[in-house]
């Protein structure tokens, strides 16, 4: 529509003025994803967001997602200005893993290799040996297990349990969870599968174990999009944030995509298949931050140097 096109133009102009590029996650509003694509930015999973931001020549990154994504970009590119539509957008996994408690836990197990999910603060990353995203978590833990290493895993317990089961690695799990994915329920999914017996079930591994057990494909957002393209089934039941439907439908236009049921069935759950923090990003606050530059990510430089070590390790491993 005309209003949207006008907004895109205004934002494109501000991006140019600031020498900025948009780095967006699949869970953001479809308008934001379309804007990122139309202006030479990227829409991707958290691993590719980190890589794209690091490698892009722009001097300013506008990270549309949640805070840990902006922090990761800043840690990898301290010389760049990193802006976010709002610094208020956080993540229940990050919130559920305060650095003091986490450090104390690690200190109690000094013989363990510390592996943390990207969905953590810069301070938690700085205490880690490895950072991983869901795209590479299984491969990295498999690698560490083959070296005989014992692992501390934080913060997502469901992803941790999934990896533990898949690799057989010796892992101590933190008890965090994602408020979006923990709402998916096996019972509802089974009922839906009974309605559509020919459907494939796609599940993000932040979901509960009983939901993962029903999946035809388990993976990161980018891996689920690939599964929608490559699995033979016409119908897909998708257990992850509904923001993914925009790119998934683009990638697999002939597939029928259905949202997996959540505990509250739209009535009571806090976050029925859509992350409340991802939803804080909008075209309005993107334009506002490009104009006034106030939502800037800062990471203490000494902390950032330490957090960069396990992040670089991941990016080198995933090459
Ligand atoms: P990925 O895009 O890396 O699968 O991460 C999902 C996520 O929870 C981001 O918030
Ligand atoms: Fe965090 Fe879950 Fe939101 Fe991702 S979807 S940002 S893991 S709360």
Automatic annotation (TrEMBL):
Signal peptide interval: none
Predominant location category: cytoplasm
Record text on cofactor binding: Binds 1 [4Fe-4S] cluster per subunit.
GO BP, sorted A to Z: 'de novo' NAD+ biosynthetic process from L-aspartate
Reaction(s) catalysed (UniProt annotation): iminosuccinate + dihydroxyacetone phosphate = quinolinate + phosphate + 2 H2O + H(+)
4Fe-4S recorded as keyword: yes
Pfam families with a match to the protein in the record: NadA
Cofactor: [4Fe-4S] cluster
Locations listed in the record: Cytoplasm
Binding positions for iminosuccinate per the UniProt entry: 25, 46, 117-119, 134, 204-206, 221
UniProt keyword annotations, A-Z: 4Fe-4S, Cytoplasm, Iron, Iron-sulfur, Metal-binding, Pyridine nucleotide biosynthesis, Transferase
SUPFAM superfamilies: NadA-like
Enzyme Commission number(s): 2.5.1.72
Functional pathway: Cofactor biosynthesis; NAD(+) biosynthesis; quinolinate from iminoaspartate: step 1/1
GO molecular function: 4 iron, 4 sulfur cluster binding; metal ion binding; quinolinate synthetase A activity
Record-linked InterPro entries: NadA, NadA_sf, Quinolinate_synth_A_type1
GO CC annotations on file: cytosol
Role played: Catalyzes the condensation of iminoaspartate with dihydroxyacetone phosphate to form quinolinate.
Membership in a protein family: Belongs to the quinolinate synthase family. Type 1 subfamily.
Name of the molecule in the record: Quinolinate synthase
Originating species: Aquirhabdus parva
Lineage: Bacteria, Pseudomonadati, Pseudomonadota, Gammaproteobacteria, Moraxellales
Gene (name only): nadA
């Amino acid at each position: 529509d005309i209003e949207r096109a006008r907004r895109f133009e205004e934002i494109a102009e501000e991006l140019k003025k600031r020498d900025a590029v948009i780095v967006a996650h699949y869970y953001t509003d479809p308008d934001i994803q379309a804007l990122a694509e139309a202006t030479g930015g990227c829409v991707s999973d958290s691993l590719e967001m980190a890589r794209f931001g690091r490698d892009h020549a722009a001097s300013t990154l506008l990270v549309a997602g949640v805070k840990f994504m902006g922090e990761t970009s800043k840690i990898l590119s301290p010389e760049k200005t990193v802006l976010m539509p709002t610094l208020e957008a956080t993540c229940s996994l990050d919130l559920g893993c305060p650095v003091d408690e986490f450090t104390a836990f690690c200190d109690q197990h000094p013989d363990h290799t510390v592996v943390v999910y990207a969905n953590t603060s810069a301070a938690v990353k700085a205490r880690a040996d490895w950072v991983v995203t869901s795209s590479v978590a299984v491969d990295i833990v498999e690698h560490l297990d083959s070296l005989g290493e014992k692992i501390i895993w934080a913060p997502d317990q469901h992803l941790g349990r999934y990896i533990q089961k898949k690799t057989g690695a010796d892992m101590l799990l933190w008890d965090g969870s994602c408020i979006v994915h923990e709402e998916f329920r096996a019972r509802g999914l089974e009922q839906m599968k009974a309605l559509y017996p020919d459907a494939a079930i796609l599940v993000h591994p932040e979901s509960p174990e009983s939901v993962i057990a029903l999946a035809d494909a388990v993976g990161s957002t980018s891996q689920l999009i690939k599964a929608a393209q490559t699995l033979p089934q016409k119908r897909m039941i998708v257990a992850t944030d509904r923001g993914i439907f925009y790119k998934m439908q683009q990638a697999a236009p002939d597939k029928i995509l259905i949202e997996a049921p959540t505990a509250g069935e739209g009535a009571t759950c806090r976050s029925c298949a859509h992350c409340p923090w991802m939803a804080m990003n909008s075209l309005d606050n993107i334009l506002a931050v490009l104009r006034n530059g106030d939502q800037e990510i800062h990471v203490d430089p000494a902390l950032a140097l330490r957090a960069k070590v396990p992040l670089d390790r991941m990016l080198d491993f995933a090459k």
